[in-house]
Protein 1
Amino acid sequence: MAVPKVLLIVGGGVAAYKALELVRLMRKDGMEVRAILTEGGSHFVTPLSLASLTENPVGGDLFDLTAEQEMGHIVQSRWADLIVVAPATADLMAKAANGLANDLASTTLLATDTPVLMAPAMNVRMWTHPATQRNLAQLKADGVAFVGPDEGEMACGEFGEGRLAEPPVILNAIRARIGRDDSLKGRHILITAGPTEEPLDPVRFLSNRSSGKQGYAIASALERRGATVTLISGPTALPAPAGVTRVQIGTAEEMLAACKAALPAQVAIMTAAVADWRPAEAAPEKLKDKATRTTIELVANPDILAQLAKDGPDRPALVIGFAAETEKLIEHARGKLAKKGCDWIVANDVGGTGVMGGDANTVTLIDADGEEAWPRLSKAEVAERLAERIAKTLG
Ligand code: C5P
């Protein structure tokens, strides 16, 4: 798949500062980004910040001689796979809904047939005003997609609907709209992600540092290839990827039950960092600070990967495990391939490089035929490669 290209239009609102975070997330996700900053937007963020983060010149002026010699507003919108307006102010929405074209941003929006995604942000009264709601309905009828706004406390001190959707949520909405194909259409794929939490009592639990980022990125990459994706997730801070069915669980036993309930599936990918052990019993009341007991008795959790990989009518055609190792990576991972009975193991070295919770991963894919060492990639790129390999294997 080619590198996704996004043209970001930043409107003039307090939330414009969040557009910088959005650019950072898009770049990390492997997208190429160009930006247009409206006059209003330039009062909140500088062209230099946007240019530095996008690593591209920033458009601002419709009558910029150099840019418009090449018809900048037309070229930019043709270049992009998607135009994102964030924050989409009441003014930008009104212009776009009525076909006004009196600055670079509005002219670009009028001069394009590239899909547009708007993330509105404005005061709650402006948002609920009949004029804005009319413009919203018109833009939707014109085929513009929307993400947010959220409800919450606003910069102006009021509370209500009108907050810019959080950048990770906007990123998901962007991902869902670009780089799509049908290579996994009709396939149901089951993914586990994140940590599990094994309770000691109602307020304490045993868990681990898994962020869920790799599993979520894989879920998104598969969904964009047309797969029906069920993501069984332990507690994470991540929003559900667009178009994916997320089932949230706490313990390993709940994860196993949710996996079984989601079968049949053609592919199962187990990225979750499942706790191998759980406290033998979870106290019904909070354990007392001065308790004399200083040891925790543990019992083994079910191995979800091994259970799904067992032969049987419901066994997915392709079962993929992950192996996080800190030493003898390949040897240990190959051992797991055999022990668990899965078809592929994605081995990653988590020794001291900040892989857990981080954004990059260096993995080796191991199957019965051999090994494939991948270079250090972002987790999003690992997800893309894995999704492509799965699509090729299923044929
Ligand atoms: O044995 P280890 O925990 O290193 O195995 C890692 C692989 O097994 C991962 O794919 C993980 O999701 C899966 N696993 C599991 N259930 C467990 C333990 C691990 O599905 N109880």
Protein 2
Amino acid sequence: MTSSAINAQYTADAQYLLRRVYGYAAFRDHQADIIQHVIAGGDAFVLMPTGGGKSLCYQLPAMLRPGVGIVISPLIALMQDQVTALNALGVKAAMLNSSLTGPQRQTVKAQLRAGALDLLYMAPERLMLEDTLDMLADCPLALFAIDEAHCVSQWGHDFRPEYLQLSALHERFPEVPRIALTATADTPTRREIVERLNLQDARTFVSGFDRPNIRYRIVCKESPRQQLYRFITEEHPGDAGIVYCLSRKKTEEIARWLQGKGLTALPYHAGLDARTREQHQERFLREDGVIIVATIGFGMGIDKPDVRFVAHLDLPKSIEAYYQETGRAGRDGLPADAWMVYGLADVAIHRQLIENSEADALHKRLEHQKLTALLGLCETAACRRQVLLQYFSDALPAPCGNCDTCLTPVETWDGTLVARKALYVIRQTKQLFGVGHLTDILRGTDTEKVRKFRHQQLSAFGNGQELSEREWASVFRQLVATGLLAVDMEQHGSLKLTPESLQILQNARSISLRKDPLPARSTPGASRKKAPRLAQTTAARLGNNRAASDLFELLRVTRRELAALHSVPPYVIFHDKTLLEMAELRPLSREQLRGITGVGERKLEEYGDAFLEVIDRYVRG
Ligand code: ADP
Ligand code: ZN
């Protein structure tokens, strides 16, 4: 056969398995090319956003090439998830790690030797043990897949020293194709991955980094708990979500507070004992509608596809971190929200954290720059998605229409004059005071503190009455965010001038400020309106199709029961997307059910009748 005929054959085989095993109709953008390239024995470096469909890119070649595909994965939870999902699809997959008992490990090794596995997952440190390498040398190997490849990068957020050893794989197994995959978008990290994994000759496949189903929203911090509560109950009742906080203590407080309000919320942070952490994670994965309140450590290694919202009560430290954390929402491609409250104190805390860290001067400067870029995102009046993607050099030509600034355009105004007033008063009071007192002076408010320092005698006193207290807070926050002011945490948050301040004071530059939208208050009428019972996505997708919504709920119950019966998370049975399609199309036979996205042969066999019965009963009324 010619090479193009061979390639066509590979594609046809892969297409067949895609349909039969996974129940999917077509490949997404680069998937077919990647799969064809790896089946033909080529090395590949795959950059694809979270939820883009990276797993198929090595799973299908592993099934189609002779031998077993070795998947290197940094976390047991991640391996566990994937192996469970693959087994449910009828794929012969297993893992080797410390969570197995001795006899279980022996079983896996026997399966490996017997050639009974298509995929074997393990951590890099286990793979690189001499014993393991010897064992693998005796088996035909389909490929090495290096998942979460950014773990090899020191600059990334998930550096794992064990990943460095993987550079030796190529010398040891020169004829086995390697495919490295990551969702990390920034260029220095990419370069480092290629170097450290010796992938110079690999073909690189880059997909766009946009996550169009995620709606970005960043709002001013006013009363964060109430804001969070309103956001969850009004927009995501019954949905699974993650709430990120900066401190361990705060995750517990917020979780308790949400529980007090009747929501299923659980804390998660490194200070909890392993057993509690595991329990909370399990409940998040297995029950519907659990909210996890976590520090940033939570989420890596969680493949849960139906996380409907990610809420930040505190600012992350960079755009990379923000994108990674928010990226955990909506892997299944259905609508999801990334929601954050942000205020001046967040900036001050982060600046302080950087200053107090052990890092050297160069690193500190880099961290400050990263924070500044994130603040730019917070304060932008432009499309959030454009700012985000621009940061990753993945320009979006037009505003997205699915972020807060697109949906409710932000007005900007010339803030040069008020900025000068603010900086003047800071200079006049010797840079010793914080926002509250400075605002009192500007607004001419007669307080005890004003009298104590005789600040009513300043020329600035009462010189800023054109703005409300809230508006002054917004001005100060924006001046700090843009570096025109600094916050001194050692001195109770007093505001300091910076070298840039001079340009404003000397009238050498102007500044445009955003007009913060008023906080969304639920009108009394709206709050009394009964909250929708259905999870938001369903409501959004099924609209006012009451019948389909009812059927969807029934299908969810069946899924929950099956999941409990088989001890797997509900999404391992079927994703929401599959149930939504069933609710809309109401298949009544196995043949019709086969046409639904996500229904492969094994699942049809295993669960098909249970769902058909529900649909049948529903249709008959
Ligand atoms: P990633 O690892 O890139 O975050 P996954 O491999 O977990 O993404 O895929 C995300 C979701 O998309 C999964 O539910 C997966 O089954 C689904 N998916 C992947 N490829 C396709 C496809 N070609 N058609 C439909 N769904 C797909
Ligand atoms: Zn937008």
Protein 3
Amino acid sequence: MIIIMKPGASEENIRNVAGQIEEKGLTVHLSHGTEVTIIGVVGDKSKLQGSNLEIAAGVDKVVAVTESYKLANKKFHPEPSSVSLSNTSVGPENLTVMAGPCAIESSTQLMETAFAVKKAGATVLRGGAFKPRTSPYSFQGLETEGLKYMKEAREATGLSVICEVTSARAIEDAVKYVDLLQIGARNMQNFELLKECGKAGLPVLLKRGLAATTIDEWLNASEYIMAEGNPNVILCERGIRTFETATRNTLDLSAVPVLRLKTHLPIIVDPSHATGVRAYVEPMAKAAVSAGADGLMIEVHP
Ligand code: PEP
Ligand code: MN
């Protein structure tokens, strides 16, 4: 449920309404827009029966939020949000490029890539230290050693750095070395991992699940992170599995405008994992920007 205040509502009006809600044990989320303030309510709204918030001073209207995700919902927070990093921010004010290798392989490989992507305009270095491989016999990542290389590359270049985490132990380790955590497609509905990320204190880039997950399920996954008190979530479309085999996945660019109507969270598109073919990355990157993405994630290898 949201309470939309009148354009002229005073601070006192807002405090009074928020106070009535909190008194009933519900949580309040304020969104101060340029015109109006919106008070978002999270919790069991039946507790508000008899409160008559509709007629409280300064209230314009009370609207039910029917979607199960609330904090990620655009109705709660109509203005687009952005996520601040030390060297940039991810949101509508920038076109952020996150680039780097799939897996961190060595200090030299990462450092060389870091300087190259910085020169090309990227502001965030990506690289996997924990790799969620289809086969248990594939290289699983350098783990802590890789995280240390990430930190070195960050210090040498000033880029922010992002690394995927695959377990609670990986989170515990990664927070010491990186600026953003990434949840991979295979873990989009790993709810325990999402909750741990919500508590980790770093921004989280949440990739869309690769098979049979809807946009609403994706937004509910982001809600798991936000409900732990972490508002800094970035969504990343990386292609979904369809019957087409000419590309690795099918890049669902319509997800960008769909998300724009449903959520305030920043949206990044990853054309590398979506297409799996170098020649398709550039045209789909351009298409993603045309569709309104706030940035791109691109795999780069020297
Ligand atoms: C990755 O970013 O290297 C990765 C494994 O991506 P995804 O989770 O989208 O498959
Ligand atoms: Mn990869």
Protein 4
Amino acid sequence: MSEYKMPRGIVISGTGLWTPPDAISNEELVQALNSYAEKYNRENADAIESGELQAKPFSSAEFIEKASGIKSRFVVSKEGILDPERMRPYLPERADEELCLQAEMGLKAAKLALEKANKKPEDIDAVIVGASYLQRSYPAIAIEIQGALGIDGFAFDMEVACSSATFSLQRAVDAVSSGSAKAVLVINPELASPQVDYTDRDSHFIFGDVAVASVVERKENCNADSAWEILGTKAKTVFSNNIRSNFSYTARAADVDPFGEGKLFRQNGRKVFKEVCPMAAEHLESQVQELGMTPANIDRWWLHQANINMNQLIAKKLMGDDASIERAPIVLDRYANTACAGSVIAFNLHSDDLPVGSKGVICSFGAGYSIGSLALEKVAV
Ligand code: CO8
């Protein structure tokens, strides 16, 4: 466990949220999977009958909403996902001279964050991109966005699955507190849809695409009307195989299909639920205690957005009967699980209403396992 006590005076001065234009309801998604399954079962009737193949089970919109709280999700392109002949998005390859899709998404969120923080690219000297998947290994997506914005400084990518946003915010805090950067643009473009197996009823509904971004800087340089001062950060990882993707560039050398069985996102959802909820609640409780507070002092919890039942359980463990949707807002009903971006979306959409002096915690939990959190206080600037 690493607990980092940074000097005070570092703030998140603005965040940006870019939402893709296409939305897919549970009903649309289920219709596509069920048409696919019906055709698969019809075409393979003999093999299914002889036990050589298993029939594809049907999905249900009621199950999805009850089991997860998800009603809809945004994706960069819905067309191919809903085509039973395709069952994956269609995202045409771009020329090297064009911005790649993930950089384009990140750039849109970054511009919104800069505007909110009242900052220009010349005020920034470091860019960190954190995401569950990166569209390519190099050159870094962060350097591509740095170039597009004309930022002078350094940039790098990092991946810690669902905790990529909180961990990248923590790296920004480290950089500003050590003086290696004066203002850091943290960008989390989650392009999840290409890694979803839309033919698998257990996981076809879970993810959505989105991009968020944040500006981290010293309070004395902040030009926004108000900001959120970082009171403390906390990170923890424990190895687990319960959420895994084996998609790898080594598939070619291993003579295996890079998109074969188990190569896309897969999880043991029940186990994740059971193991991660108590870990996250203990992590958060101990963090606020280390900062001389109790959960009752926290006005808002911007929790990771994977499953509504998970969030309600954690909120109940932290706040008891005082747990409410107002204090632990939900965005996964509209956005689904956006991997690392969920808690930052919740922060972006549900923090402006709080007065100066309010306290809140951004927290992610997921694959790794990984848990990352930042305790914040709203300050006048
Ligand atoms: N329609 C109808 N029935 C279904 C469906 C469906 N779509 N899906 C499953 N069922 C069936 C199952 O087959 C099962 O049937 P049976 O009992 O006959 O075997 C029954 O319903 C119950 O299934 P589950 O036990 O799986 O259902 P749960 O109640 O556990 O709900 C959830 C499943 C929603 C997945 C739940 O377990 C959950 O949300 N767990 C938490 C998971 C979580 O938080 N994971 C974090 C992952 S995200 C992350 O870390 C980032 C990874 C990187 C990002 C990747 C981007 C692509």
